[in-house]
Structure formats: C-alpha cells, structure tokens
Write a structure and sequence with these properties.
By secondary structure, the protein is an alpha/beta fold. The chain is about 30% helix and about 25% strand. The chain has three domains: about 200 residues, FAD/NAD(P)-binding domain (3-Layer(bba) Sandwich), CATH 3.50.50.60; about 110 residues, FAD/NAD(P)-binding domain; about 110 residues, 2-Layer Sandwich (Enolase-like, domain 1). The chain has 13 helices and 22 strands. The strands form five sheets. Strands 1, 2, 3, 4, 5, 6 and 17 form a seven-stranded mixed sheet that branches. A five-stranded parallel sheet has the order 8-15-9-10-11. Helix 6 links the parallel strand 9 and strand 10. The protein is globular.
Length: about 450
C-alpha cells in the first residue's frame, strides 16, 4: 500500500471535519498520513459554525423557556443575562474540542503540521518552507463568509466575527435570508437584542420548501424580529460612537449598533497554488471533482465545503470516508446526495429531508401533499403564540414519501428519524400504519390523512 518514494501516502490540507475524517481512516487503513492546518483544528463547524451556533441557540431559548414557565405555575424572579460569560464558556468548550481533534489525529498516527500549505506540483506540498512529498494530496480547506459589495461594508462584520463580539448589541441588522442569517437573528433576538433581518430576496430560506420560509417568517415576526424582504443596502456610514447609519435602496434608514453579514460563503482556494498545479476550479470558485472526489490532477482529491456541493458537516465526513476507502481500502464507500437531512436552528427550528414540493412536481408529476399547522400542547397553557408546521410530500404513483418538512421545536431531532424512513423508501401507507407516540409533536407525521386539495 505504501509508496516509499514519497514522504507520505496522503497529505491533507485542512483540519476540518472532512480532512480529519479522511486522514484518520486512511491512517487506520495503513497509510502514512500527514495533515496541515494553519488556524484551528475542527474547521468551521467546531470553531465558528455548528457547535458555537448551537450553544448560543440553547442560550437564546432560555428567554422563551423562562417566560413560558409562568403558565405552568413557576414564579421566576428578574432574569439577567451575561454575554461575556456565555462567550467565555463557549470558548472553553471549543478549546476542548480542538484538543479532541488533535488527539484523534495523533491517536491514529497522523503527523500534523501547523501552517499554511501550498501545492507545488502533483505530489509536493510546501509548509513553513518545507517541501513534503505525497502519493496523494487531499484539499479540505473549507469555505469562509463572503463580504457583500456595499459602500461602508468594513463597518460591519461577517458571521465568523459574530462568535467573538465583545458586547451584545442593543440593535443589530442581520443581512441575508439563508440559514445562517435566520439563526443569528434568532439568537440575538432571544438574548435581548432588537433585530432587523434584511433580505434582498422575496423569501427567506430560498432553496428549501417555500412553505418553510413563509411559515418561519410569521413566527419570527411574532417574536419581534423586523423581517424586511426585497430590501437592499445602499450604504453604511459611521455614526456617533459605535452607531452605524444604514441606508437602504428604498430610502429607509436605520441607526444600529452592529451590522452582521450572512450573505453567502465561498471556497477557500486562494493562495494555494491550485492553478499552477493544474487543478481546475468551477465557475463558483470551488474545486472541481468527479464522483470519487478526484480533481483534474489524478493524484489530488478534494472534499467538503471547498468543492461547493453540500456544505454540511456530515456530508464532509461522508466524503472523507469515500476518499480514504477509495485510495487505501476496498473502495466500498459510496456517496449519495439523496435524502440528506438538515436543520436550521432558528426559533422555532426548521428541518427538512427529501424533495421540496416544486422539485417533487418536476420529478414525479402527480404528487400528494399533506400539511398540518397547529399549536403544540406545551403552548396551550404557556401563553406563547408559537405554532408548528409539518408537511409530507408523496409520489402518487408509488405512494413513496419523498419529502418531510417541519417548522417547530426540536425539528432537527424529529426529522432525523424520518430521514431513515425516506432512505428506506417508506410509503405513506407505512407512515399511516405506524403508531404515534402520544402526546408529542412528532406523532402528527403519522396521523396526517387528508391531502391538501390544491395539490391533487
């Protein structure tokens, strides 16, 4: 398996989810593996993504939990929130996870280099001035937030910086309509910040089933978030102190304490020597790969956010497994992008698996759509106006459920199980024959019986 003419069998550039997974398993398959990371192990997810975001989301939910408790007989005194304590505790947990990733690599026998790596040729990497050869090179450098082209944009911040803010702003604008934007807006709102969500599109969560964005918008409005769609920035100017004076294309203005851009992400491919090495990039700046994640250079592979396919941690992990298996094992691991479940940790949560209604109509023609909109049992006495939305999409010809969508508490936890059902090809009849767990929100997915008339 090993090729002694090279220093290593695999050299991975990037210590995020995909890079670490591929490196770890390649080493376990017997390969000599090295990995270079210039910043922090764990990548976006651990440091400025999934993990800190979810921790802050938990923190923000306590606002509603404390308020809802009154309806259940709890008398709670004045609540105080300490942003600095939350961030310090978050940082401590992230530091622990950095160590976990380091131990995973060392435990597997992977040699780690701290520094920026560039590719000199098909089998050579340069790190800290050192030339290192490898039979294969894996690019797993992830992505980073995109700065919008707005006059005064330097007065704002991108999502990475959000997790290191020194103070909680009194009033913030969150720019964007995707999952990162709505998550940050929900966190800030729950922690007491006045939030204005500015989206240039007509609907938030574009790309997901349209009903999800429409329903979540109404829930966000209930919580006091000012959602402004079809609105664009004209300029950002510095006001008194930390104030930002924001002008919009419709003539409106706002004075806020922070402007947070969550307007997209792009692949980390700059200053790596990719073009010189002959690695082809896609039109959107990602690394172009085939079904086995091989680039235009046969000895160079790429996985994760840097290939601009599906920017999700579990997807990067699966892609990394495919590369390790292809290069150093049986090659039995295969990657499928069908039925990938995902969640948006907004308040309430959004989660989805399978096809949107529009995509299902295009693929199958005739479909059946089942919808349910209701108040959860908890909120019948909590006083909250929050509601739950659920949707099933069924191929009429086969009766197979091809889409499951939800807005509501713990949506991600609920959808995970239904993702198994979709992956197994479950039919609506099998959903109907499944006994629900009562009383729960989740049981509604197996009790919906009447399709909406306009979808027949």
């Amino acid at each position: 398996m090993t090729d002694q003419q090279y220093d290593f069998d695999l050299f991975t550039i990037g210590g995020g989810s995909g890079g670490v997974r591929a490196s770890r398993f390649a080493a376990q398959y017997g390969a000599r593996v090295a990995l270079a990371e210039k910043q922090y192990l764990g990548g976006t997810c651990v440091n400025v993504g999934c993990i800190p975001k979810k921790l802050l989301s938990y923190a923000a939910h306590y606002h509603d939990d404390l308020k809802d408790a009154a309806g259940f007989g709890w008398e709670i005194g004045e609540a105080k929130f300490d942003w600095k304590k939350l961030i310090a505790n978050k940082d401590e947990e992230i530091s622990r996870l950095n160590g976990v990733y380091s131990n995973i690599l060392s435990g597997a026998g992977v040699t780690t280099f701290n520094g920026h790596a560039t590719i000199e040729d098909a089998h050579t990497v340069i790190v800290n001035g050192q030339h290192i050869t490898a039979r294969y090179i894996l690019i797993a450098t992830g992505g980073r937030p995109t700065w919008p082209e707005i006059p005064g944009k330097e007065l704002g911040m991108v999502s990475d910086e959000f997790f290191h803010m020194q103070e909680l702003p009194e009033h913030a604008i969150v720019a964007g309509g995707g999952y990162i934007a709505v998550e940050l807006a929900a966190i800030l709102n729950g922690l007491g910040t006045k939030v204005t969500l500015v989206n240039r599109g007509s609907l938030i969560l574009r790309g997901m089933d349209a009903d999800l964005g429409k329903f979540l918008t109404q829930e966000m409005l209930k919580k006091g978030i000012d959602v402004r769609c079809e609105t664009k920035f004209a300029s950002i100017e510095k006001g008194e102190g930390e104030t930002r004076h924001v002008r919009f294309n419709n003539g409106d203005t706002l004075d806020v304490n922070a402007v947070i851009f969550a307007t997209g992400r792009h692949a980390n491919t700059e200053n790596m020597g990719l073009e010189a090495a002959g690695v082809t990039l896609t039109s959107n700046g990602g690394v172009e790969v085939d079904e086995n994640f091989r680039t235009s250079v046969p000895s160079i592979y790429a996985v994760g956010d840097v290939i601009n396919r599906v920017a999700l941690t579990p997807v990067a992990l699966a892609e990394g497994m495919v590369v390790a298996s292809t290069l150093f094992d049986s090659g039995a691991c295969q990657m499928s992008y069908a039925n990938i479940p995902t969640a948006v940790f907004s308040h309430p949560n959004v989660s989805t698996v399978g096809l949107t209604e529009d995509a299902a109509r295009k693929k199958y023609g005739k479909i059946k759509v089942f919808k349910s909109d209701f108040k959860a049992l908890k909120h019948t006495i909590s006083g909250s106006k929050e509601r739950v939305f659920m949707k099933l999409i069924v191929d009429e010809a086969s009766d197979v459920v091809v889409g499951v969508h939800m807005v509501g508490a713990d949506a991600g936890e609920i959808i995970q199980g239904f993702a198994v059902a979709l992956q197994s090809g479950a039919t609506k009849a099998q959903f109907d024959s499944t006994i629900g767990v009562h009383p729960t929100i989740a049981e509604e997915f197996v009790t919906m019986r009447t399709p909406v008339k306009d979808a027949e």
